[in-house]
Amino acid sequence: MDNIAGRKSSLSWAVNISVVVIVALWLFPTVGLFVSSFRTADQIATTGWWKAPFAAEQNLTLRTGAPDSQAQEGDVWVIAGNLFDEEGVQPAPISVWGISSRDVGAYAVGETAETRAGERITVLENGDYRMEAPERMEGSRGQRVFVTAVVPPEFTLANYRQVLFSDNSTDSMAKAFFNTLTVTIPATIIPIVVAAFAAYALAWMDFPGRALLIAFVVGLLVVPLQLALIPLLKLHLGIGIGKGYLGVWLAHTGFGLPLAIYLLRNYMAGLPRDIIENARVDGATEFQIFTKIILPLSYPALASFAIFQFLWTWNDLLVAKVFLIDATGQTTVMTNQIVELLGTRGGNWEILATAAFVSIAVPLAVFFAMQRYLVRGLLAGSVK
Amino acid sequence: MATMEIRSARKTYGTLCVLEDINLSIGDGEFIVLVGPSGCGKSTLLRMIAGLEEISAGEIRIEDRVVNDLPPKARDIAMVFQSYALYPHMNVADNMSYSLRLRKADKPTIADKVRDASAKLGLGALLERKPKALSGGQRQRVAMGRAIVRQPKAFLFDEPLSNLDARLREQMRAEIRKLHRALGATSIYVTHDQVEAMTLADRIVAMHGGHIQQVGTPLELYDRPANLFVAGFIGSPGMNFVEGAVELGTFVMRDGTRLPLPEGMPETLGGATLGIRPEHVTLGEGLAAEVELVEPTGHGIILHLRLAGAVFRVLTTDRRWLTPGDQVQVGLPAGALHLFDESEQRVAPAPHPQQ
C-alpha cells in the first residue's frame, strides 16, 4: 500500500510497544490475584504466585515411627515404614535428607546416616526408611528426619469455599456480592433509559432552548459529585427515602446522567438525517422513530455507556457509603466488604486475594461479553 | 395518483430567501423533473412538498387539499433519498414493509405487496439481506421498492442516482422511466444532471437562484430556452454565446464581425447575446476561427475554437483531422440562432431548429 491513506505510521512500533506494556501492566496483577486465590496461605508465604504451576522443592520435617513400633530382627532392633505415612503429608520424591536441622541436605537417598545414639537410618527416594539399632530404642517419639522433596503444584478451592459459602459474616462475600448486584443493575439501567430519551430529544427534536439545555448538560459534566453528597443525602433523609437501595439508585442515576446524555446525544446526532426523515415520510411517529430506528442504531453507544456505568457503580465505594450502607451492615457492598476484610483479615492474603478476585470477576465478564459492541459499526451499509 | 398545485410558495431562513414565488401545477401521473445547479433551491422545494421543510408563505395542495401544516406522514407521499436512507438494522423485506407495518396493514397484504414490488425490481433473491450486504445499485432498488409498496399519491426523488457509477446510472434511469410508465404515478424528481432531466421528464422545471426559470417539455427547453440560464444549462456541451448588439437586422459582435439575422428578429437591440448550440454549427463556409483544442468523444469531436475573441465550441461528427492552430470556417445557420436581450430574456420568434 503506497497510497497516503494506507501508509503505515513510522511510529507504529511505539504504538505496539505501548500496547504490550499496557496489556502487561493490566494482566500481571489480574493473573496474580487469580492464581493466588487458588493457593493456600503456606504456598503464598513460601513462593511467589508465578511459581505455582511448577513443582517446588520443599523442606519437610517428618518423623519415623515411634520406638514402640520397633521390632527385633536377629540381634538388631528395627523400625521400618514410610516417612509420608504421617497424616496430612503428600508423598513426594525425596532428593536429599538429613537428621540435623543444621544440615538438612547431608545425605543422598540410599545413604545411611548414624545418629548420636548409634541408630543407623537409611532413607529411599519414595520415603521408605529403615532404622536399625543394636539395642532397644528408647523414647516416645520417632527420630526427626529433614527431607528435601519436590512437591507437585497444588491448587485449592478452599479459599472460595471460605469466602463465598462460610457462615462467618465477616468473611462472607456472598451477601455483599448480591447487594452489589442489587445496586449496580438498576443503577445502570435507569440512567440509560432516561438518557436515551433525553438524548433523542436533544439531538432530533426542535424546541426552544435546546442549545441552552445541551450546554447545561455539558456544564454538569465537570461538576464533581462530592459537591452534591451532603445536600443530596439531606434531601433523601428529608423526603423519606433515607439510606437504602432507592437512594443509591437515584444518586448513581443523577451522577451518571450528564455523561450518558452527552455521549448518547453526540452519537444520535451523528446518525444520518436521511434515515430519520425517511422514517417520518414512511409514517412513523417520533416515538416510533425513537424505538424502532434510533435505539437499534444506537446499540454501540448504549452498550459502551452501559459498560462504563456498570464498572463505575460496581467499583464505587463513596456513593454506597454515603447513600446506602447503614449501621446494620445488612446492605454492605463488596468494595466495603473488602475494606473491612483488610482490617479483620489483614494478614490472610489468600482470603484477600480471593475476595478481590470475586469482586473483579463480574466486571471482567461484562467487559469481555460486551466489548464487541464498542467496536462494531452498526451503520455499515445504510448510506453511501 | 394525484394532482399537485404549488401557489406562490416561498421559503426563507431568517432574512435569507432561498425560494421565491414558486408557482407550479402538476398533472395526474406526470413526471416532473426539477433541475438546476447546486443551491438553486430544488431540493428545498422537494422537501417542502414532502413536509420535511416548513412552507414560509404560499400554499401547496395535493389533490385540492392544502397540506402546508400536515406532517409528512399525513401527505401520503413516498420519497427516495440520494443516500438511499435504508434502515441498516433491517433486512430488505423489512425495509420495504416498514411503512406498511406502521400503517398496521395485515400480514398477507404486506407479503403480497413486498413480493410484487421486489419482483418488479428484481430483488426477489435478496429479501433476507441486510443493506450492508448489497451493492450500490441494489440499495438504490430497495429504496425505490420501499416507495413502491406504499402506492402513495406521489413519488418524490431527491437525486436518487448521483451515488451510482455512470453505467449503472444509465441503466437505473431507464428503469425509473419504465417503472413510471408501469405505475403511472405522479413523480417529482430532483437532479442537477440535465441528461437525466431530458431523458426522464414529461416536463422539466429549470430552477436558478430560488426562481423557476422555465417550465416545459424537454424539447421546449432545448429548442426555445426562455433565458440565458436555461439556454446554457440545458444541452451538453453547453450553448455558445457571443455578446454584441443588433443593428439594422445584423448582429455585430464586439470585435466588429457582422452576422445577418433571419427574418422576424428585431431590427435594433443594444446589448444583446447571440446563442447557438455546438451541434448546430457547421464546418465549412462562414466565419474564420482558430482551433484551440480538440476533444474526441468517440462518436464525434468537440472543437474548441476562438471566434471573434470568444471561446466557441463545435460538436461535429465529421472526422476531419484537425490540430490546435488550424484555421477553419464555421457556419452559423440562421434557423438555429437564439437571441437574448440585455435582461437575458429570449427575444422574438422561436427559430425552427434545423434538422
Automatic annotation (TrEMBL), chain A:
One of its GO terms (cellular component) is plasma membrane. It is found in: Cell membrane. Keywords: Cell membrane, Membrane, Transmembrane, Transmembrane helix, Transport. InterPro entries: MetI-like, MetI-like_sf. Residues 177-370 form the ABC transmembrane type-1 domain. It comes from the Bacteria. It is a multi-pass membrane protein. Pfam families: BPD_transp_1. One of its GO terms (biological process) is transmembrane transport. The chain crosses the membrane at residues 12-35, 183-204, 211-233, 245-264, 293-314, 351-370. The keyword Transmembrane applies. Belongs to the binding-protein-dependent transport system permease family. This is Carbohydrate ABC transporter permease.
From TrEMBL, chain B:
Gene3D superfamilies: 2.40.50.100, Nucleic acid-binding proteins (2.40.50.140), P-loop containing nucleotide triphosphate hydrolases (3.40.50.300). This is Sn-glycerol-3-phosphate ABC transporter ATP-binding protein UgpC. One of its GO terms (biological process) is carbohydrate transport. NCBIfam families: PRK11650.1 (NF008653). Keywords: ATP-binding, Nucleotide-binding, Transport. Belongs to the ABC transporter superfamily. It comes from Sagittula salina. GO terms for molecular function: ABC-type transporter activity; ATP binding; ATP hydrolysis activity. Residues 4-234 form the ABC transporter domain. One of its GO terms (cellular component) is ATP-binding cassette (ABC) transporter complex, substrate-binding subunit-containing. InterPro entries: AAA+_ATPase, ABC_transporter-like_ATP-bd, ABC_transporter-like_CS, ABC_transpr_MalK-like, ABC_transpr_MalK/UgpC-like, Mo/tungstate-bd_C_term_dom, NA-bd_OB-fold, P-loop_NTPase. Pfam families: ABC_tran, TOBE_2.
